[in-house]
Structures
1.
Amino acid sequence: MSWINLSALWKILVFGLLAGAGLPALFAAGLYSLSLGPKRAKLAGADGGADSDVLIGGSVIGMVLAAIAFLIILAAIGWGIYEIYQIGHPAPAKK
Amino acid sequence: MSNDTILVLVVITALAFDFTNGFHDTGNAMATSIATGALPPRVAVAISGLLNFVGAFLSLAVAATIASGLVNTAQVTLTVVAAGLAGGIIWNLITWLFGIPSSSSHALIGGVIGSTIAASGGSAVLWHGLVSKVVIPAVLSPVIAALIAAVGTWSLYRISRSLTQGARTHGFRIGQIGSACMVSLAHGTNDAQKTMGVITLALIANGTLAKGSQAPIWVIVCCALAISIGTYLGGWRVIRTLGKGLVEIESPQGMAAESASAAVILLSSSFGYSLSTTHVATGSIIGTGLGKKGAEVRWNVAGRMATAWVFTLPSAGLVGAASYGIAHGIGGTAGVIVILVLLAALSGLIFWRSRGSKVDHNNVNAEWTGTVAPDEPATETAAV
């Protein structure tokens, strides 16, 4: 009977960092690839560029990469929810 | 059958607690989205309410902790549960009046433990369970959440640094909708469970359920409904403190904070830790202030919250113990009815007091001037 469950603690920390900081970072990377391309708005601070809120830069590769990033995020969330459902509803007796 | 009357009263009171839990905690999920303008206030609370409902069905681990891990169920009577609930509700409403995002879970647990001690002494409390499953997570969770949110915030700004200000705000507002939804879902998996646990505790105390039983399905459905209705009504006072009072938040910070909260709460729920979603959300918001250069955390607001956190368990415990004293002094069904009438009267009084400085969806985002209620009367204020 320990006071702190260290194995739970490190899992919460590691998976927390992966899901809680990693997935939003992947989202940011998706936004970045989406912004690549000829229509890419000027860098912040340049004349007038700061006001543009256009997200899509027009590069096909950029869009594909962004789509992959967003899909990975959705898949990770779906898998996470499934896991939590599994853990939270222990099957009686078997398994 | 007087016992059945008490049982019905206790279940109703528990659902009332669940309701206050919902509206006290809407801010945990939605404060940052509302503050950055990612979601209109009323849409935000509606989505949050719906997802709390879904989340309540997602995991039952926390309900089990509450029902059997904190007090010796053999010594819990219905009067004890009723008095404990009274303690939790009163503390929830008082902190809401002052716009302090204190922990609903601690209010509930404190209340139940206070009334248990009053009824059968300290030996009826499973102190090890209390410390290892409630107190230690309460101390650690905000720190972990703050760390994750700080790392997230830093990397979001770093990765998106070549985007224009407008594109960045726009993009992360979209992301925030997703992350805020996850927090609402997580809230359901943790907080809705607590009331389920308490009702299960009452059913066990009454002999309706065997010791060690899981929450029956009608309990799950009722609790899910109560918390989602509470969430939908929106605790605007707390939303305002969290979204505007603590840190001035931009959309990347909002997304980082929400993602950190959702991850920590969901992971902890699946381990059966009944941690406070409020502590996690507050830790995340502070972390997001630490992770961005030049952002300012209003430590005086944070300090006020932390003080309230420390007092939550003992204060709710005292109210719980006092309620038990009154109920026991009068005795029987009458005793329980008297404390519940007192509870209703006091709740009405607190609600009436709150009308004097109204915070609602119109003025929730008004400029922070150091008080929960904005100085000027409610006007539409543009966020960011």
2.
Amino acid sequence: MRAMQRKGDAPKVWKGFPGAVEPYLFLVPSFIIFGLFLFYPFFRTIYLSAFLTNKTGQPKIFVLFTDMDNYLALFRDPSFWKSVGVTFQFVFLVAFGGLLVGLTTSLLTEKKFPGSDAATAVYAMPIAIASAAASMAFKMILHPTNGLINNVLGTQINFTGDVRYALASVVGVTIWLTSGINFIFISAGLRNVPAELYDSASVDGAGYWRKVWNVTIPTISPTLFFQIIINIIGAFQSFSQIKLLTEGGPSNTTNVMVWSIYRDAFFNFRFGSAAARSVILFLIVLGITIIQFRFEKKGVNY
Amino acid sequence: MKQTLVRRHQFQTLRRLLLNIPLMVVILIPLLYTLSISVMQPDEIYTNRLIPSSVSFENYVRALTGSYYNFPRMILNSFIVSTSVMLGQMVTCSLAAFAFSFLEFKGKRVLFLAVLATMMVPGEVTIIANYLTMLRWGWLDSYRALTFPFLTSAMGIFLLRQYYLTFAKELYEAAKLDGCSNIRFMGSIVVPLSRPALGALGAYVFLNTWNQYMWPLLVTNSRHYRTVQVGISMLYDIDAYSLGLMMAGVIIVIVPSLSIFVFMNKQLIHGLMAGAVKG
């Protein structure tokens, strides 16, 4: 009772100068960093996208809604649309490929067996590996003359330089990189499936695949949905694999949006156009996040 | 009846092993193959062997002593940057999380939403503008450029705040009544009690910073400030014999990452799960 009174009284006490200002002091370090390196550059990017810039990124000519508008120029440029198309292909393949690998590895380690701890550790391991380091390892595996895959197949395929294989190669590397996080989240989802659901399915005479399809997947559908969103947002941000394996080529078949931003800014020094691409990328990711919020409220469930 | 059950169990175990082993090999192959190439004699790599005939550390010696690229300096750079970012986030995020969970003030909700909103903006979207800031300030090629932008994170604030919210509010009120200042309460009670959460944040942030590639690539040009992830990709371009060198570099770079994964597995996964709660 006394404690409750104290609680009720607390806000009415005049705290004086340090008391009233103090809470904000705790926030100052974080908000300085956010302000300088997140909020400011975010609005700066939008601002820059309205200009033609010089080589050091200074805005020079305001072009928004004119004939030289950065956005209009992009929308008129077929290679921009190709880049958007490639990005969506890449993202789709990575999101569902990663999910499939994660679901497989999680189902295979759902029950304990001798060695299941080792399997669990191995399946989670890619979360620790840097995309740059993994890309270099795969560069060796995919090497046209001395690489593992060509050795085993007895071929000399230029995986990262051939229009038929380049996108598949970077997709494969990215799925490997994201397989760990898919495994961890889907495994966590599986642990939450109530055992009674399986029991009653068994009583009904359902076999393994039926149980997976009719019990497991519907029950963990919120996890799977959440994981697809994480995969999508992560895939939109992929850069190292592209830079180190294909540099957006051959013939722009792996020219995803982040790579095109990098190219526009650091090869062509067109910072205004790169900023416009960044804003478009942001809007796409924002749209996906909003979809996630909507669905989460409704609940993706059986 | 009992025997058939035992047999069925054995059969299931065998089946699990037979299904898991190939998949484990597939996931492990990039590392095993890299390791195998890295210990080959330079000319053996070009004979397309999968397993080295003998173990040689020549590639490691060359990677670590090559004067052109100074790999040890890059390792040191990565350690300095990752440690600074880790410690920095521990401090800034603890402070902010403390305010958001224990203190009452005007605009608390709005400010917290502002923190959460930062999670909606992928780093790649602001990277051009951030690069231009560094250019304008003359920060390119410096530790400042590599560390400052990452000295706080919404994920860190969020993770610690969730942890602080589990503390009894009475603890704080009792301390206040005894005349304990906020900062002292934080230092003597909150921080020691939140070691598990700080460990999770630390492991996750160190690993993430160690693994960064795009930002270090943009803001460093000189060999003095390059980090390891950028460094290994440079090992590739040195000469015709660089494949083994590159693989040795990859292994060297992966060792700290894997160590965190092995020795701080719980913390890392905890941090990862908090970090993935995006949007």
